[in-house]
Amino acid sequence: KNQVEQSPQSLIILEGKNCTLQCNYTVSPFSNLRWYKQDTGRGPVSLTIMTFSENTKSNGRYTATLDADTKQSSLHITASQLSDSASYICVVSGAAGNKLTFGGGTRVLVKP
Amino acid sequence: KAGVTQTPRYLIKTRGQQVTLSCSPISGHRSVSWYQQTPGQGLQFLFEYFSETQRNKGNFPGRFSGRQFSNSRSEMNVSTLELGDSALYLCASRPDSRSYNSPLHFGNGTRLTVT
Predict the structure, then answer these.
(1) Which of A36, B86, B102, B104 has a Cα at 20 to 30 A from A94?
(2) Do B101 and A89 touch (CB under 8 A)?
(3) Interatomic CA distance for residues B69 and A55, integer angstroms
């Protein structure tokens, strides 16, 4: 069964600090892996998309890594800001990219 | 460019009723997909439409249906509402159903509460 597991479920960090979110998946075959940020009461917004051949991609202070061999991805947030408080969702596309499996998300709270 | 627009933003319905939700994709986007988001189950795929045809379907009962119009706008219908249907319903668009490596553009959802 295709699954995407995210950890931790939630975390609290101080403004200015870094943090790393984890995503492990069992989706096969693999097409791409996406990270989305979802603010409370809003729809998810795409941060990064990585295909099999890419192992790192950045979007401002967000850096995603992918290890397709171990089926693991991480999202690193550098110098966190209060606006980073949100849920971060890992999404894996299966065969032909038309079958999406969602992780349960990690809720991040940045405190001043 | 305007984003994905979903209406209404909030909806309260009673068990047994039916509901129709609307989604207008980004101009030029022809693929529209629908998702249910609940605290317990997270985001779950409902179905995807492209050129007025359903291309993919998730594991939801037949009470959940949708359609897409020639202008790419889409509607989702839930009949015989149950308490468990209370959720945030999200719509997303992308240029076409084969743009696998392009991001989904989500609307801000319709919050449905069933009492």
Answers:
(1) B86
(2) no
(3) 39
